[in-house]
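Weekly modeling sync, notes
Attendees: S.R. (lead), two postdocs, one rotation student

Agenda item 3: backlog of single-chain predictions. S.R. asked that every request posted to the team notebook include the full sequence so nobody has to chase files. The rotation student volunteered to paste the first one in as an example of the format we agreed on. Action items at the bottom.

Example entry:
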Amino acid sequence: MTKDKDDDDAIDFKTPPKLSRDQRRQLQTWARKVTEGQRASAVFCSLWSDGMRDDPGRDPIPVIQLGYAMLLDKPIVIVAPRGARVPENVKRAALAVEFYEPDDVLSVRAATLRAITVALGPGDSEGER
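Predicted structure, as returned to the notebook:
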């Protein structure tokens, strides 16, 4: 890998970072915390942001959770703002992708209920109880 003289943060992706035992333990603890509860959940619901696709390092938690939900074979539903660019592979993996109008809380609620209803079936979503 070549490194620009101005790029002190360049990462060599061919060589994994060397972590101390403490760093490895912290990373494992963090990974467990961000995925806790997913095994027991009936559905994985993601509030989509284009940043998940465009800059996953900015907030890796939802990206890790989405991947883990796939490994657990959980039903996945995506709730996204209208105009979001949800990748085709994500759409294929999801049982439902519902869109809402940005800045409209009722629209977010309605989209979430529609998505959960698809995953759980009519009468099983919280709004139907």
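Discussion: group reviewed the output briefly. The helical segments are 21-35, 50-54, 61-71, 88-93, 105-120.
Action items: rotation student to repeat for the remaining queue; S.R. to check formatting next week.
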